[in-house]
Amino acid sequence: EAQAKRHQIKVQTGMLFLKKNLRVGTVLPQGTMFARGGSPKSVNSFFTPLESKYLATILSHYKISHSSIKAQQVADTLRSCGKPADKEEPHMCFSSCEAMARFATKALGVSGARAAITRIHGHETPNTMYVVAQIAQFSNNSVPCHPMDFPYEVFYCHRPREVQSLTVQLKGLKDGTPGVTATAMCHMNTSDWDQQYFELLGGERGEPICHYMPTNYIMFY
C-alpha cells in the first residue's frame, strides 16, 4: 500500500496482483478487504445526462460546493462517462441494473448476459487473512461494471479486450474466519500499461495482471 502511494496509483491492499502469483495456497496480504460500504446514495429522480456540460446543474441540485473534493469527483465521473464511443472497447455509464444488463448483452453478443459478484461468507475485519483455496476460469469475454463517485448510484461498464475472468475461492487463514467467493479479472496483455504498475508489482511489461472485484462490482459474462 505504501508502495502504491509512492507510485501515486490508487490500489487497495491485496486487490491487484500478477497472474503468475495466483496459486492455491497463496496468502493474501493482511488488510485485504472485499466489502465495500458507505452511506446510502440518493434515489435517482433527477434525470440529467451524464455529460460534463451539466456539471453546474448537478452540483446545484445536490447542493455540492463547486470548490469541494466531491465536486471534483463528480466532474471526473462525468468525464469518464462522456468519453467518445469506442468500437474496440465499448463503454457506458448506467444507474440501473437492468440497463447495465442490456448493455452487457449487446456488447458480449449473447442472448442474455449473466452476472457474477463477489460474496463474503461471514463478517470480515481488517485483521481477516485469506488463502487461495480454488481457482476456476469462467469467461474470456466479460463486461465489468464498477461504481463511480456521484450523488446517486452510477456504474461505469466497459468490455475490455484480452481478458480472463476467474472465480477464486478464498478461505480464512484461521479457523472460524470468513471465506470469500471472489470474482477476478486478468488483463492478459499489459504492453501498453503505465510502467508504475510493473514497478509496484515487480512484474515485466506485457505479462498478465489481475485484480479482484469488491462486493459492489458486477461482472457480466
TrEMBL record:
It comes from the Eukaryota. Residues 16-221 form the BURP domain. InterPro entries: BURP, BURP_dom. Pfam families: BURP. This is BURP domain-containing protein. It comes from Aegilops tauschii subsp. strangulata (Goatgrass).
